[in-house]
Design brief:
Chain A is mainly alpha-helical. Chain A contains 9 helices and no strands. Chain A is elongated and about 60 Å long. Chains C and D meet through helix 8 and helix 9 of C and helix 8 and helix 9 of D. The structure holds a DNA duplex.
Chain lengths: 199, 199, 199, 199
DNA sequence: TATGAATGAGAGTTCATTCAT
DNA sequence: CATGAATGAACTCTCATTCAT
C-alpha cells in the first residue's frame, strides 16, 4: 500500500514522516501504532526513535507544519490584493481551497487529531488557528459594514463558507478532471452567493 | 465530569451507552478505553460486558441508532411538503440542522468514527448514508432542471449546503440565545442563496 | 452438537452433569468454561450454581463416580473367579475393557484431568487408584511366583497390559461392528501373551 | 522450581521455550498462563512476545519439532535394518521407546495437547502422525502375511504395542537404575510376544 | 427453584518507549 | 546511524463466582 521500496540512505527522516502522515490519515492518531509507522516506512522501530522523540512528536510535526503553511498562504493571498471585501474574500477562498487540496492529507489530520495534541502544543497552535479564523471574520464584517455584502447573520455566513471550503478535502480527487483553478472559482462563486456579494 | 450518581439497579445498560457516548465524543473511539467507559458509567468493567458484547458494539449502537434517526427525519420532513424544490430543500435543511443540534454528540461521533465500524456494520450503514445523500442530490437536480435553482455546478452546491448544515454541530450551544427555529431559518436562507433559488 | 432440547422439570442436575461430561471430554477442564456447560445444558448460569458448588465440584463428581465404579467392577470380577492367576488376569482385563468402553468419556476425563483435582480430592482418589493398581500387581506377581506366567519383568508386563486395555477407550466405537465380548476376548489373549501364560 | 538463574542477554528465546515446555507439561496448555511461562523463564511478558507470536506459537513449536523428530527417528531406524518383520518391528519399538524417554516431556505434551493446536497446524501435523502410524501397520501386516507373526487381530496387536511403548514416558525415570537399552529390549520382547513372533 | 445483574481477578495481547551495542 | 532485545503499563475481553430478588 506504500513505500515498500528500500529507504534511501539518510532518507530515514522523510520516510518516517511520510509513513506517519499516511497512517494517521487512514487510521487516526490513536488507531495508529508506532510500529505501524515504522513498518510502513520500512525501518526499524529504533530508527524511528533515532529521528523523532516519539509518536506525539510526529503528530505535532505534521499538524504544525501544515497549519503554519495555511496561515502563510492566507496572509500571502491577502497581501496580493487591495481592500475590496469581495476580492479579499475570494483570495481567502482561493488560499483555503488550494491548501485543502494540495495538503489534503495533513489538513484532514489537523482537523481530526487536533484534540490529541499535547496541551502545550495545542495551546501554541490554537493561536495560529484563531488568527486564520479572524481573517475571515474581518473580511465578512468589513464587507457587511461597507454594504458590499448583504447578510443578516455574518457569523453564520462565515461559518458556512469555511465549512464548504474545508469539505473540499473530503472528496476532491487530484487525479480527476476538475482542475484546481476551476474548483477555486466554483467555491468563490458559492462564497459570494452566501454573503450576497457582487458577482 | 459525569454521572457520579449511583447507578440504579438494572439501569446499567443506559448508564453504559451514555458513558460511551460521552467518551467517544471527547476522546474518540480508539482514544477511549472500555475502562474509561465503565468508570464514567459508575459500573465495573464486567457489567459493561454483561450488557454489551464489546467496545465495537457500543460504537455501532450509537452510530446506527442516530443515523437511522436522521434518515427517518429526512423522509418525514419530505413527506410533509409538496414537490416544490425550494420547499423540499428547506425541509431537508430543517431536518438536518435539527438533527445535528438535537443529536449533536452522536452525529459527531458518526462523522468522526465511521471508519472504525467493523466492515460488516459499515457496509450495512453505508446504505443508509447514501440514501440520505441521494435525497439532497435529487432535490437540487430537480430544482435546477425545472429552473427554480440557478447553479452551474449542482454537485458543489449540494456539498456546500450539506457541509454548512453539518458544521452546525460543532459550534451550536443549546444553552445559548439562538433558538433552533431561528437557526433553521438562517441555514435555509444560506441554502437558497447557494442554489440561487427564490427567496 | 448436544442437548438443545428443553430441560425436563427437575432434570436440571442431570442436564448439567451431562453437559459437563461432554465439555470436559471435548475441551478439557481448563478449556471449558462454566458458561459453556450451562449453555450446553440449556440452563442459566445460576441454575448451575443452584445444583453444584462450582466447576471443581463437577469434575470431582465425574471422576469420583467413575473411578469408584471401576474399582467396584474390578472387585466384582475377581470375586466371581477362583485363584487361578490366568483366570484372575482375564477377569481384570474384562473389567477394565468393559469399563473403558462403557464409560468411555468419564474414564478419559479421569485420565486426562486427574491433575486438576483439588489436592484434597486428589488425595482421596489416589487411594482408589492405587488399590486398583495393586490388583494387577498381585495377580501378575502371583502368576509369576507360581510358574503360571513366564516373564522376566512382571512390572513391565503389567504396565503393558494396562496401557493396552486403557487405550481401547481412544478408538473403540460402540456403534461399530465389534461387540464388547469379542473385544474383551482379544485383549485377554493379548494379556496372556504378554505374560506368556497358558492359552 | 526452575531457571532462577538470570537469563543471559539474547538467551531469551531458549529460556522461553524451555519454560513453556515445563509449564505445558505440568499444567496443560489451558492451565498455563503466558505469565506463568514468562515468570518461569525469568523474563518479562513482553520479552515473550518479542520472540514468539503468542501462546499457540509456543505449543506448535514444541509439538511440531518433537513430532518431526519422532518421524525421523522411525525412518532412520527402519533404514538401518533389512526386511525381516521381526527386525523391523524391533527397530520401531526401539525408535519409539528411545524417543519417548529422551523427549519425555514434549512427547507427553504432544499427546495431551494435540487438540489445542489451531486447526491449520493440526491439519499439517496430522499428516506426520498418520505416516508414523502407517509404519507400524505395514510391518505388522507384512509379518502376519508372511507367517512370521501369528495374530488373529493385527490391528489390536499393533494398538497394544504402541500403547505399551508410549506409556513408557509416564513412568520411566532417566535418573533411575534401568538403562535405556535394557528398557528397549524389554519392550521389544513384549512386542514380539504380542504378535507371537520368533524370539 | 430459578433468575438476571453485577463483580474482581486474571486471561492473552499490544502499547510506547528505552538501552546496550 | 541503526539495530535487536527488553520492559512496564495498558489494552480488550473472559473467567468463576455471588447476590438480591
Amino acid at each position: 500500500m506504500s513505500t515498500a521500496a528500500p529507504v534511501p540512505r539518510g532518507g530515514g527522516r522523510d520516510a518516517i514522516t511520510r509513513a506517519a502522515r499516511e497512517s494517521f490519515a487512514e487510521q487516526g492518531y490513536h488507531g495508529t501504532s508506532i510500529r505501524d509507522i515504522a513498518r510502513r516506512a520500512g525501518l526499524s522501530l529504533s530508527a524511528l526513535y533515532h529521528w523523532h522523540t516519539g509518536k506525539q512528536d510526529l503528530l505535532v510535526l505534521l499538524i504544525e507544519e501544515s497549519t503554519a503553511e495555511y496561515f502563510r498562504r492566507c496572509e500571502g493571498a491577502l497581501d496580493g490584493v487591495g481592500d475590496d471585501p469581495a476580492e479579499r474574500l475570494l483570495a481567502l477562498v482561493r488560499a483555503t481551497v488550494e491548501y485543502r487540496v494540495s495538503r489534503r492529507v495533513e489538513s484532514t489530520i489537523a482537523a481530526a487529531e487536533w484534540r490529541n495534541l499535547a496541551p502545550e502544543h495545542r495551546a501554541r497552535l490554537d493561536g495560529l488557528r484563531e488568527s486564520a479564523g479572524r481573517l475571515w471574520t474581518e473580511i465578512v464584517d468589513d464587507g457587511v459594514a461597507r454594504g458590499h455584502f448583504r447578510c443578516a447573520h455574518p457569523e453564520d455566513a462565515r461559518r458556512a463558507i469555511v465549512a464548504a471550503c474545508n469539505a473540499v478535502a473530503q472528496w476532491y480527487d487530484p487525479a480527476g478532471d476538475l482542475a484546481v483553478p476551476d474548483l477555486v472559482e466554483r467555491y468563490g462563486e458559492i462564497a459570494l452567493r452566501i454573503v450576497d456579494g457582487p458577482r
